[in-house]
Amino acid sequence: MANVLADLAMLQKAVEALQACHQSQGRLVVFTGAGVSRESGIPTFRDAQTGLWANYRAEDLATREGFLSNPSMVWDWYDFRRNTVWDAQPNAGHFALAELENHFERFTLITQNIDNLHQRAGSQRVLELHGNIFRYKCLDRNHPVSLDLLADANASPPHCPVCNAWVRPDVVWFGEMLPETILNQAFADAQQADVMLIAGTSGVVHPAASIPQVAKEAGATVIEVNPELSALTPFVVDYFLQGPAGEILQTLLSAFKQGVGLEVSDCG
């Protein structure tokens, strides 16, 4: 019983922080990781290395060197991943965050995920730190490329119409820098956050994992939603809400709306 009461007290404190942020027209920044997408049935990168792909190393599938060594194999791997992601649907956590955005004029969703599920759920102000699996670019010069416009779109891989280099997924591979403009914007928004809401991240992948630290150091209240404690929990988190993101974020949204006099309905 004591644990239940502690959890309820923690939830109430988190709700009060969101309500205070809303009432003061403060900035809410959300930071999400693979745990949110896992609830939609999307395996993590390493979990997806099964069957045909089980014998490949991450270095074979998600580095520039791996792509140059075997471009057809890497392209086919991302086709496999893309199809898996396309078949997935946003879950209650995605929908809860999309609705929460509607109630904050100053809102940013920073995600480490590449699956586009936040946007499919209705989120508008999204910063994608690691790219998007449904976008493409030129390997050599980073030209954005639309496969629909390529004469050899079915090639494995196709070629850039501007410079004839191979086309690659517009995702961040191991050993690559995160997109500078997006990363700088994420740090800037975190520094201005009044509340940061973390969901589904282990907090071990840098430099992304430094973003909550920036928010905390700037005075933000940090709320974490995760099934288990993360690397961030002991250092930056004020209120830890344990459980699956879909369930907890929906509960958090409903309690927030009740507290600020908004009509409560089911997410999604």
Key features?
elongated, three-stranded antiparallel β-sheet, 268 residues, 9 strands, alpha/beta, six-stranded parallel β-sheet
Structure description:
- The protein has 268 residues and is an alpha/beta fold.
- Helices cover 40% and strands 17% of the residues.
- The chain has eleven helices and nine strands.
- The protein has helices at residues 2-23, 34-38, 58-61, 64-69, 71-87, 92-101, 117-121, 180-191, 210-217, 233-236, 245-259; strands at residues 27-32, 106-111, 126-128, 131-138, 144-145, 167-171, 195-199, 221-226, 239-242.
- The strands form two sheets. The protein has a six-stranded parallel beta sheet with strand order 3-2-1-7-8-9, with helices on both faces. Strands 5-4-6 form a three-stranded antiparallel beta sheet.
- The two termini are 32 Å apart.
- The model has no long low-confidence stretch (mean pLDDT 90).
Contiguous low-pLDDT stretches (5 residues minimum) are: none
The helix content, as a percent range, equals 40-55%
Radius of gyration, CA atoms, in whole angstroms: 20 Å
> What order do the helices and strands follow?
HEHHHHHEHEEEEHEHEHEH
Task: Give the rounded overall mean pLDDT.
Answer: 90
Shape type: elongated
User: Whole-Å distance between the termini?
Assistant: 32 Å
Question: What's the β-strand tally?
Answer: 9
Helix count from the secondary structure assignment? 11
Order of the strands making up the biggest sheet = 3-2-1-7-8-9
Q: Please state roughly what percent of the residues sit in beta strands, choosing from under 5%, 5-15%, 15-25%, 25-35%, 35-45% or over 45%.
A: 15-25%
Structural class: alpha/beta
Task: Give a short account of the largest sheet.
Answer: 6 strands, parallel
